[in-house]
Structures
1.
Amino acid sequence: MCTRTLLFAIIIVFLGASCKEVSKEKPLSQHIRESTDKGIKDWGNFPIGGAINVRKALKDRKLDSITVQNFNSITSTNDMKMYAIVKEDSIPDFTRVDSLVSYTKKNGMRLFGRALVWHYGLPKWISKTTEEKGAAWADTFLRKYIDTVVPRYKDDVVAWDVVNEAFDTKTGAYRKTFWYETFGKEYIEKAFRYAHAADPDAKLFYNDFGQEKYPEKLDSIIAMVYDFKNRGVPIRGIGLQMHLEMDTPEQAIADALKKSAATGLLVHISELDIIFNKHNDENDGGEQAITELTEEMKLAQAEKFKQVALLYRKHVPKAQRFGITFWDFNDRDTWIKPFFDLKEWPTNYDENLDPKPAYYGFIEGLVTKIEN
Ligand code: XIL
């Protein structure tokens, strides 16, 4: 073979090899779908959470394996709420929380505690005793409650939602709850100070819903956060529940994230799900306009989940990304259906606990390159 022919042959072989390389490159979506050994948590660079009912996860093998595969952070849906810990009297029952702690330990997951103070589902005996004994009793109770719960889990729980939903549904006013009626807005600050004294290392969050939907509410929350920072109230993070609707504008999500991040605190998307119908935010059920889930809707929802991940990465600086948590994360168990009395499909897994396009869409949002 002459030198020229040899050179030609080498070039052909080289081109052939590099063409093979190119054809090996799969589209991103296919690559994600084929990486069945990975979960959502393996694609991003911040924690990915799931809200669970630990008894369900322990009983249901498929649910358990989805939980372990996808999440490195866990929130309890209800078991750490005050009404679950002190149901009938002031003697706390920690059985479920303890079992949650061993579940997260066994699986090497971060445990997020919530919520120390929330108006919804306040045990009746607390308001009744306050009526009889007065605000001083309620103050002692609150301090004692926080002093009992927080230190008990100080090695297990890295962060707490200290107060949940202290603002009105749609406006910037404080919600007139039992706690507000008893102490005025000072109860929020009290709870943060008690929690900090109980575990100075715990990262303390304020959590609420609808910041992306109601701008006045967002601004009031942000104003409270700056006020806390200025006066040394020990707040470390803001939780945005983000129970979204398909037509929640991306600009609105971006604004809520940007304003939260501008405070310098950690930012947690704490309860993500996305519905096709409408919530009635005053809890009187939802507005059922859509009753069938089509393939087209599934793809649109995937795109929306992708956008949420992209927006979070774009607007929350790395050091402030506490993570994104999915509430219930499957269409079988989602709280949305009973709570709003809706036929709905708001999560990443379907009723049979199989991944929906939304599952892959969100992951695309974690890995797609963004311009900052
Ligand atoms: C929900 C639970 O998922 C339901 O099981 C329960 O009946 C009501 O609370 N915002 C919150 C969460 O802060 O605690 C709520 O969780 C969902 C809305």
2.
Amino acid sequence: MTAKRLIVFDTTLRDGEQCPGASMTSRQKLEVAKQLARLGVDVIEAGFPVISQGDFESVSEIAAQVKGPKICGLARCLPKDIEAAAEALKPAADAARIHVFLATSQIHRRFKLAKDEEEIVRIAVEGVRLAKRYVQDVEFSAEDASRTEPEFLAKIIQKVIEAGATTVNIPDTVGYAVPEEFASLIRYLFDHVQDIDKVVVSVHCHNDLGLAVANSLAAIKAGARQVEGTINGIGERAGNAALEEIIMALHTRPDAFGKIETGIQLKEILRTSRLVSRMSGLAVQRNKAVVGENAFAHAAGIHQDGILKKRETYEIIDPKIIGWEQSELPLTKHSGRAALENRLKILGFELEKEEIDNIFSQFKQIGDKKKFIYDDDLVSLVEGQISRIKETYELEYVAVTVCSGGIPMATIKLRHGEEVLVDASTGDGAVDAAMKAVDRITGQHGHLVEYEVKSVTEGKDAIGEVTVKVNFDSKKLVTAKAASTDVIEASIKAYLNAVNKALL
Ligand code: KIV
Ligand code: ZN
């Protein structure tokens, strides 16, 4: 049986980033894109260039710096969108793909677009033709395809193929489909679109009913040869299909799905998942398939016994193949800059000299407090460095007093340009008091929506990583993080990062 090749299209940086509070800086997106290239995805959808200057620049930077995968930019079927995408993608040259989309379902045609079928076909065809003037590789998505009348869907797909589309994508935009029905729709298109064999048929499933992965797999079985999704399944509402789950299902069950090849380097899966989680600030649920903390943790004695006798009794995936348990020997405060640089390279980070200088100085400070510095500690330091933004306010000093039965109190000193500002506040606890003191100095009043402390590694001396989600004026939801061996300091830095992000 010859293997079929599946194109893996990653939209973590576009659809994934549309998740509230998940926005990433250009620097963070670049690092994720480089890791996606190492993971071996075929296409990276880097953003929606017309939407903002930041998105435009980020697509352009990724197009210039990330080699290997195709780099894709999203556009509505509007000249200004397509022109912005073409311009942003220029540095990718032949590796550029423009992805145009237009809603096709009756509900969207009637209520959102107020256009009839004929007009929808005309706009889609013009969009594809215009994109084709800039790049060879054009993808067309029929938004809300799964709720579109199959006859109309087949008609518009044939027309966009005639106009030059090279990939046609069938999204389940609102996560409404169920597997057998979605597979039937794909088969229907193979049977009713005359030129379907000339293009790649793609699917893009959302997870509103928790069926995004199941629907994607059913469509692959029915002949789809591109699958779209995000790492960790992040995305709007309930998210997109989790690529790592699709990949591992195909890998583990060739008997069910046939022999399907991808370019994915399985050993990079866990690292990619963790990077996306840290960069987006969206934690991976513990029991998440493939990449959750508990995915390979066996608590029940009977399972542990079985695993020790033969791993396959209770484990269907060898955790090592996706990058679990790959830790190298830890570094210590005696390790030099060359050792640090070398380890960072092994971990897959390509950093500027100045960035390494900063990380090295933090590494030495941590080395004084902690006996061993593990790979996860280093990743946390690197991610702190990558996530740095312009600091309107910098933390100079913090002192907190807490005593049982007493009133917690915090004194904070912040640098604001040349000025040093000091204030103090009481609060419910040390963190509350310190955040209130920050508010008094900066004049910002953030409402803390989420607060999470997590230790990066084991041990009482471990680095604590704090993630906060803060709402400013009920308008702006900002996610920010910081790490320190002292969790109070990490909490204040994370909150201050959120304030600085909001001020940007
Ligand atoms: O969900 C969707 O329909 C999309 C399209 C833009 C492909 O994200
Ligand atoms: Zn989508």
3.
Amino acid sequence: MSAQSMEELVALCKRRGFVYQASEVYGGLQGVYDYGPLGVELKNNLKAAWWRSMVYERDDVEGLDSAILTNAKVLRYSGHEETFADPLVDCRKCKARWRADHLEGETCPGCGSRDLTDPRPFNLMFKTNVGPVEDGASIAYLRPETAQSIFTNFKNVLDSTSAKLPFGIAQIGKAFRNEITPRNFIFRVREFEQMELEFFVEPGTDEAWHDEWVHERLAWWQDQGINGNNLELLRVPEEELAHYSKATVDVMYRFPHGVEELEGIANRTDFDLGAHTKNQRDLDITAAVPANDESNTRLAVQRQDDKRWTVPFVIEPSAGVDRGVLAVLNEAYTVETLPNGSKRTVLSLQPHLAPIKAAVLPLKRNHDGIVARARALKADLMKLGLGRVLFENTGNIGKGYRRHDEVGTPLCITVDFQTLDDETVTVRDRDTMQQERVNTSGLVDVLRERIA
Ligand code: ATP
């Protein structure tokens, strides 16, 4: 099941506190969103799942958390100053601006006029000044991708970990692009998060590794609850490849507004490490003085046997966190008709992504014994480290179940009078709506089995 429209998802996100418009009290800021109490949990859980699979489950990848503010030279040598642009057209009639490659025909989507300017490149990077003097020398950028600082830290990580090829550096963090027309909720925004791996390999093995990572990433998205029928692979046509790419395969997802990119997996060759390295492509680097006087580092590895230097090739799986959140929400959103004819909205998130793992509900909100037992149970269950367990004292169990269905809480645990006698509680399952009586001593096993 999935949502029928973006509007349904936007409404749920606002109503239940997943996503809000940023700066809303002043009318918002276009292409910028804030994540609410449940959104931050879902987002953190998605990022944690990525980190677990990329870093913890492998021994050939290390993590990094680098700065957002970036020296302009990094983005000059990487080619972004010159080429990180989208084609912009102006409508001469209504003055609106559009991305030329998003137009249908040569017509203004705003007013229908055909009086448009020729496309011209518009650089997507946000520029700022560092320090109190606003001159050319103080210009810095908010990074447009997390990747560049992985490249510029390549030697640091190599030296401090003694990693050997093939190995990767993983990073999750914010990226900023001044998109011409942000749209489709959190799909295309100006401030977003990326989960990027740069996986460095021997030149010549790059194509096989590229295939391997496409396969891995497709499987990972399915582990996040995305139906394989809603995913497809798109080999990006040569004329549309980014300036650094030899080949790119996009993982496309059937979003409510259409099939679009969720993640790009690019073969960036030795382009970036080469660009930031002295004596760029010369593999026989022996000179002590950089030929490229802007960078003082050799971003390369030296072979043990013949002491030759190699600039590794890099395979980059780059996924958007916000697009990931939108995709898993869309997949999980289900409206069911119950046997009595009423409707129920349920968010069938994978348990590891659910913002709240379990809610502990006292049957009577004013009964001291029941409330105290429920509070203590919450504290015990939190010790499992599975994520957020919520104590919720509203006294209305039926309503609580409905609300937790709608936000994807896998289990609700009700503490009642009987609990005080025999230490049993009612455990209700989100998906089956089945209720079972479980001894509190067995709850740990139930949670481990269903949530972990
Ligand atoms: P698009 O063609 O949709 O503009 P892109 O090819 O420029 O995307 P990449 O540079 O490959 O995107 O970035 C890697 C990932 O970062 C994308 O797959 C996407 O998930 C995410 N991403 C890129 N731009 C945005 C954006 N404006 N809003 C949200 N996520 C984004």
